[in-house]
Amino acid sequence: MLTLNYFNEDKLKTLNGLQKRGWSTDRLQIVEDVAILDIERKELQTQLDLLKMEVNQASKEIGILIGRGKHQEVEEIKQKISTNKSSITQLEEKSKINKDTLQDLMYKIPNIPHDSVPAGKSAEDNEVYQSWDKPMPQLYEGALCHWDLAEKYNLFDLKLGVKITGAGFPVFRGKGAKLQRALIQFFLDQASAAGYEEIVPPHLVNADSATGTGQLPDKDGQMYYCEKDQLYLIPTAEVPVTNILRDEILDVKNLPVKFCAYTPCFRREAGSYGADVKGLNRVHQFDKVEIVRVEHPDRSYDALQDMLLHVSGLLEKLDLPYRILKLCGGDMGFTSALTYDFEIFSAAQKKWLEVSSVSNFETFQSNRLKLRYKSTEGKSNLAHTLNGSALALARIVAGLLENHQTEQGILIPAALVPYTGFSIID
């Protein structure tokens, strides 16, 4: 959530940023509504402060007047205090309505894009930030897509997932299950080696946690909700892991904070259909290792580059051709100030598959989370939060199966062999 200071200090930047995200003139009216409510908030607070000060002063006068025996004046002051307290109650009610309305509006406004974010309306307008500079995989004639390879080698079963749960819930088995487990351990070990503390978080969160990282109210319809317990299944480990530091004030000496976590992720993906959702291209449950950082604002964009190098290193060790996209304003997530997407090339499908998003949220999440750090001067400031997929397994598995297939079987990248215990699926 943007801070009110941000609005007040640079309203034009807010308007320009929302336009870069593709907001129409009609939608931009919300910025004017926020400004009007903020003025009203300040006026109400001024009136409240004045009345409370008058009540305090009058209360002190009562004691003095009683000592002087001026009981008539005491009764007049008591009447004034009573009137003021009634006005205070009314103003407090108005102030609460104002603050609630203001907060609801603020929750609807996305983060303002970083200056480097390209303008654009959709994924077609994203910029290629880095391209694969090595030869692309050359497959043998008759090479198969990953869903056919899964059936050939008994690696995962989509029909069985439908039987047990429904569409979009694959059942991994045999060497397919071992490959999943190997990738998870490999990604966690790589994150630990890079200085990330491993976390095993809950897989369900409350509304406060989902609101803190920006999933609510923006992504309400995309999450699975347990109505009886009022809990949400996590769409990513980012949600519970970042909330570890909700309502915390960190010592600046303890920055950065670096967490990693493996969790299953649950996404309704409502409205998804067609060829893009075939096989593991789009599922409702998938495994992912997430990296999360809390940084000093002066270092957060250096940290973002460090995270890009980390994810790039993983893909190179898996020998998967990839490219990095800088997302345009119209394709960015609600909470992000700057996002890079990683896509791997599927040689069998002849298409790019997104496997990671790495984002800097600046103070957008930390303002909701009330996550601050205390500077050496003792001042509390909002920290910057970042996160990235390192990596999401469903499409990584798809890419591995397709790009490393041979007529003899599917070769396992050398970096993974110590984790799988086998070098080929045949």
Outline the structure in words:
By secondary structure, this protein is an alpha+beta fold. The chain has helices spanning 4-9, 11-20, 29-67, 71-107, 146-153, 158-164, 175-193, 207-212, 238-242, 300-317, 364-369, 393-403, 417-420, and strands spanning 127-130, 156-157, 171-172, 197-199, 204-205, 225-226, 231-233, 249-251, 257-266, 285-295, 322-326, 338-346, 351-362, 372-374, 380-382, 384-392, 410-411, 424-425. Helix content is 41%, strand content 20%. Strand 6 (225-226) and strand 7 form a beta hairpin. Helix 3 (29-67) runs antiparallel to helix 4 (71-107) and helix 5 crosses helix 12 (393-403).
Question: In terms of topology, how is this protein built?
Answer:
Layout: H1 4-9, H2 11-20, H3 29-67, H4 71-107, E1 127-130, H5 146-153, E2 156-157, H6 158-164, E3 171-172, H7 175-193, E4 197-199, E5 204-205, H8 207-212, E6 225-226, E7 231-233, H9 238-242, E8 249-251, E9 257-266, E10 285-295, H10 300-317, E11 322-326, E12 338-346, E13 351-362, H11 364-369, E14 372-374, E15 380-382, E16 384-392, H12 393-403, E17 410-411, H13 417-420, E18 424-425
Helix pairs in contact: 3-4, 5-12
Short description:
By secondary structure, this protein is α+β, with helices and mostly antiparallel strands. Helices cover 41% and strands 20% of the residues.
Q: What is the average of the pLDDT values? A: 93
- Overall geometric form: elongated
Across the major sheet, the strand order is 1-11-12-13-16-10-9-4
Termini Cα gap: 51 Å
Radius of gyration: 27 Å
Helix content: 40-55%
Give the strand content.
15-25%
Number of separate helices: 13
Low-confidence stretches: none
DSSP E strands, number: 18
